[in-house]
Amino acid sequence: MADTTRTIWQQDLSVDQQLALNTAAVHLADEFGGIYGRETIERFLHTSYDQFAGRSTVPNFLPLLAERFARQRLQALARVEGHHRDGKPVVLFLCTHNAGRSQMALGFFTHLAGDQAVAWSGGSEPEDAINPAAVAAMAERGIDITGEYPKPWTDEIVRAADVVITMGCGDACPIFPGTRYENWDLDDPAGLALEHVRPIRDDLERRVRHLLDQIGVTAR
């Protein structure tokens, strides 16, 4: 059944995309094979691909995005199910488009926390790319966020988080019992010039530093 499902799912893909996804499945199996079986790994890879297939403007980049997102989801699931215990706090930053506020917050958190904590981000309506003004504003602080990409959230990612920071996603933000939630009321930088994004960036840095202090992580 698994092979039949995979064949149906791949029938609309180019040969290069199929090969890239097969390679991605091998990579993920090497990383998670001791925890999850082939069927689970391929299901996460395929559903991750579907998250981007309808909106990506660069089809050849889709398998890489799918692999990266599937890896994050499998890491989250491993934490939820108790397969991965490193004691590090996990923070999830959520906004509407995952292109501005949550990406800048993630950038500051990763830069300041280093390997002391884990952080992810997501959006209720992900854009195709990160806001260029947000990229430029963070670059002024010496932080490169161009390696990230707008993505949705999934249940396992939210459930794996110790703290969920919401920024404007409203009723779309997922709620799970036992998780700490905090809403940061910040302007959306979408469509704003760099000079108007800088105050949002600076506010985010202050909030991230305060959050790190609250969860017992020393900022670098």
Brief write-up:
50% of the residues lie in helices and 10% in strands. By secondary structure, the chain is an alpha/beta fold. It folds into two domains: 2-80, Corynebacterium glutamicum thioredoxin-dependent arsenate reductase, N-terminal domain (Helicase, Ruva Protein, domain 3, Orthogonal Bundle); 90-214, Response regulator (Rossmann fold, 3-Layer(aba) Sandwich).
Radius of gyration: 18 Å
Class by alpha and beta content: alpha/beta
The CATH homology group name of the largest domain: Response regulator
**What is the topology, as strand order, of the major beta sheet?**
2-1-3-4
Quaternary structure annotation: single chain
What would CATH call the class of the largest domain? Alpha Beta
CATH architectural type of the largest domain: 3-Layer(aba) Sandwich
* CATH fold-level assignment of the largest domain: Rossmann fold
Shape call? globular
How many individual β-strands? 4
Unreliable residue runs: 1-9
Summed up, the helix count is 8
Task: Please give a structural write-up.
The longest helix has 21 residues, at 194-214. Helices cover 50% and strands 10% of the residues. Residues 1-9 have low confidence and may be disordered. Helix 5 links the parallel strand 1 (90-95) and strand 2 (118-123). The protein is built from 8 helices and 4 strands. The chain has 220 residues and is α/β, with parallel strands linked by helices. The chain has a 4-stranded parallel β-sheet. The protein has 2 domains: 2-80, Orthogonal Bundle (Helicase, Ruva Protein, domain 3), CATH 1.10.8; 90-214, Rossmann fold (3-Layer(aba) Sandwich), CATH 3.40.50.
